């Protein structure tokens, strides 16, 4: 653990990533205390200050109904992170179990599980999510569901490939020989050997999940107003470009910062966990 | 003396897309208590599949079809349920493989894996008690800094060290039969010799019977009491080690012995893979058939 932190801080890029991630997480958690206008997260109208550029009062300007953009971006981080954490708490375990059993058992189980995975993979991810959101109500819950549905197959693929090669390792045969059960071999012997790859993919994916979730709400299929969301903020402002540039530029930069930060940390983690092997 | 393991007319067929192919054509062999029996043959002759059948691993494959009698300590293995068979593995029967380092899971320490092996016999064993027993067992394979070894991961130890650990684990639950599938072939010769000597002493002391699978005739001569020579899924010659080495009766056995490169030089011997004499009937040396 100590070694991990040392490596993370020695590389300037990883350090930058850690700082960005820390900033995003802190602003999401402490939004209530940092935001100059916490009440602007909801349906508030302030026609005195509507559609203004950055000023001392509103550092990132105000939106079309006069709400402080900076405050809204802080609360939007919260939504993005919740979505990312929930998706990455559900999708990887599902994919991991599917891949693990398909890879270890082989035969008929492998055929059924992996072809099912292929069905999900054959539909372009965003199209699948759009289709699901079209059928379901556009809520935060359903957005999570749609993103999860398109996300787990990648974990199934990843773990399946590792499990396939680990199955041929001597220690798996040795475990079979001393009479270990299928559950013990998959969960206690093979799974720990897959964990570094899964954890690395999860950190790298955090950024991508945020992008996909923002894309969905950009298309109007994600979180609905007045809840602040980076994607829908960009979409709303895009109609007023280039005059009211602050409406799109600041939420866009916020997406960039979050995704960039998580990707840098993911890269650093890949290096650290790879070196352990 | 009673037989620990008896195999009677064992046949193995694999079902493929183009019909079935028979791999074992009726193998019979027996191992008495405390006896060391070697199964010798070239790669692909059916040595390792025989071992897997005894453990019941091959029977779990849908494409494999196994017929023949299997008796372990007088009990008919074919009549056991999968669960009962599984219960024998790791307690009454254990096995050692070619490459000791890959037989150990790289993400757990030796101590953790040792504890799991010991809990096969005694599920409620505490970690402290397991470490203590593991320490004594490691002593018996001449590992004296056992607390360091128990805290280490397999890749932090040398191949020879891992081989000793694996031997200690295999004998930890006092099995009555140990199957050694070309043990230490992945190690260099000096380490192989050392660990084989250790294994020899240990099984002698504990009275464990050994089915020793190998293609290394030099090792077999030193290690085994009796030898079965297998060629293309048939036993071609069997008998006490001395008798076979001093007077090989079957054409294949003679060819196998001639194929060993000599340390004194003389070039690599020719080996004709499919001579018709190799298919001659089995040669049994006096007193070999029990």
Arithmetic mean of pLDDT of chain B: 85
CATH architecture of chain B: 3-Layer(aba) Sandwich
Kindly report the CATH topology of chain B: Rossmann fold
Biggest sheet, spatial arrangement of strands of chain B = 6-7-8-3-9-10-11
Q: Low-confidence runs of chain B (pLDDT<50, min 5 residues)?
A: none
Task: Please provide the count of β strands of chain B.
Answer: 11
In brief:
The complex is a heterodimer of chains A (277) and B (290). Chain A has helices spanning 2-10, 12-29, 31-34, 69-105, 107-122, 125-135, 140-167, 170-177, 182-218, 230-238, 246-276.
Protein described:
- The complex is a heterodimer of chains A (277) and B (290).
- Chain A has 277 residues and is an all-alpha fold.
- Chain A has helices at 2-10, 12-29, 31-34, 69-105, 107-122, 125-135, 140-167, 170-177, 182-218, 230-238, 246-276.
- Chain A has a single domain, classed as MetI-like fold, CATH 1.10.3720.
- In chain A, 75% of the residues lie in helices and 0% in strands.
- Chain A is elongated, with a radius of gyration of 22 Å.
- The model of chain A has no long low-confidence stretch (mean pLDDT 86).
- Chain B has one domain (3-284): P-loop containing nucleotide triphosphate hydrolases (Rossmann fold, 3-Layer(aba) Sandwich), CATH 3.40.50.300.
- Chain B has helices spanning 47-55, 82-88, 100-103, 110-121, 127-140, 146-150, 159-172, 189-206, 217-223, 241-246, 251-258, and strands at 3-16, 19-32, 36-40, 64-72, 75-76, 93-96, 177-181, 209-214, 226-231, 234-240, 283-284.
- In chain B, helix 4 runs parallel beside helix 7 and helix 5 crosses helix 7.
- Chain A binds chain B through residues 107, 169-171, 173-181, 189, 192-193, 195, 277, and chain B through 55, 57, 62, 86-91, 94-95, 97-99, 101-108, 117, 120.
């Amino acid at each position: 653990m100590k070694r991990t932190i040392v490596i993370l801080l020695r590389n300037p890029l990883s350090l930058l990533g850690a700082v960005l991630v820390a900033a995003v997480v802190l602003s999401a958690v402490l939004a209530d205390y940092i935001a100059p206008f916490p009440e602007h997260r909801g349906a508030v109208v302030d026609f005195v200050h509507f559609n203004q550029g950055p000023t001392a009062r509103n550092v990132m300007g105000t939106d079309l109904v006069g709400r402080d953009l900076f405050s809204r971006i802080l609360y939007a981080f919260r939504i993005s992170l919740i979505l990312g954490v929930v998706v990455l708490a559900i999708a990887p375990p599902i994919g991991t179990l599917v891949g693990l059993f398909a890879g270890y058992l082989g035969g008929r189980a492998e055929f059924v599980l992996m072809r099912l995975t292929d069905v999900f993979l054959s539909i372009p991810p965003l199209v699948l999510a759009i289709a699901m959101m079209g059928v379901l109500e556009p809520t935060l819950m359903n957005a999570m569901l749609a993103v999860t549905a398109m996300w787990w197959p990648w974990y199934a693929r990843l773990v399946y490939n590792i499990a396939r090669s680990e199955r041929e390792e001597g220690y798996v045969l040795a475990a079979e020989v001393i009479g270990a059960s299928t559950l013990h071999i998959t969960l206690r012997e093979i799974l720990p050997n897959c964990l570094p790859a899964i954890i690395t993919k999860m950190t790298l994916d955090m950024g991508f999940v945020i992008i996909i979730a923002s894309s969905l709400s950009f298309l109007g299929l994600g979180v609905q107003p007045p809840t602040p969301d980076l994607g829908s903020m960009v979409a709303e402002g895009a109609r007023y470009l280039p005059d009211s540039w602050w409406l799109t530029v600041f939420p866009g930069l916020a997406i960039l910062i979050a995704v960039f930060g998580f990707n840098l940390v993911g890269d650093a983690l890949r290096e650290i966990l790879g070196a352990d092997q | 003396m009673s037989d620990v393991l008896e195999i009677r007319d064992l046949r193995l067929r694999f079902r493929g897309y183009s019909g079935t192919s028979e791999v074992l054509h009726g193998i019979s062999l027996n191992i008495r208590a405390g006896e060391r029996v070697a199964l010798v043959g070239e790669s692909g002759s059916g040595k390792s599949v025989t071992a897997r059948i005894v453990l019941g691993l091959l029977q779990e494959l849908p494409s494999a079809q196994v017929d023949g009698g299997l008796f372990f300590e007088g009990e008919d293995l074919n009549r056991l349920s999968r669960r009962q068979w599984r219960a024998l593995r790791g307690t009454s029967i254990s096995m050692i493989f070619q490459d000791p380092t890959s037989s150990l899971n790289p993400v757990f320490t030796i101590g953790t894996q040792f504890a799991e092996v010991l809990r096969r016999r005694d599920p409620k064993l505490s970690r402290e008690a397991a470490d203590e027993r593991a320490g004594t067992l490691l002593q018996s394979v001449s590992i004296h800094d056992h607390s360091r070894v128990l805290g280490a991961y397999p890749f932090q130890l040398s191949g020879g060290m891992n081989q000793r650990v694996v031997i200690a684990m295999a004998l930890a639950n006092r099995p009555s039969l140990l199957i050694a599938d070309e043990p230490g072939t992945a190690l260099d010769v000096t380490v192989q010799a050392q660990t084989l000597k250790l294994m020899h002493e240990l099984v002698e002391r504990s009275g464990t019977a050994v089915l020793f699978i190998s293609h290394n005739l030099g090792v077999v001569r030193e290690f085994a009491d009796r030898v079965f020579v297998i060629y293309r899924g048939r036993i071609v010659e069997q008998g006490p080690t001395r008798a076979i080495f001093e007077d090989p009766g079957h054409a294949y056995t003679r060819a196998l012995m001639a194929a060993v490169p000599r340390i004194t030089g003389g070039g690599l011997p020719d080996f004709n893979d499919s001579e018709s004499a190799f298919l001659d009937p089995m040669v049994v040396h006096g007193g070999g058939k029990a």
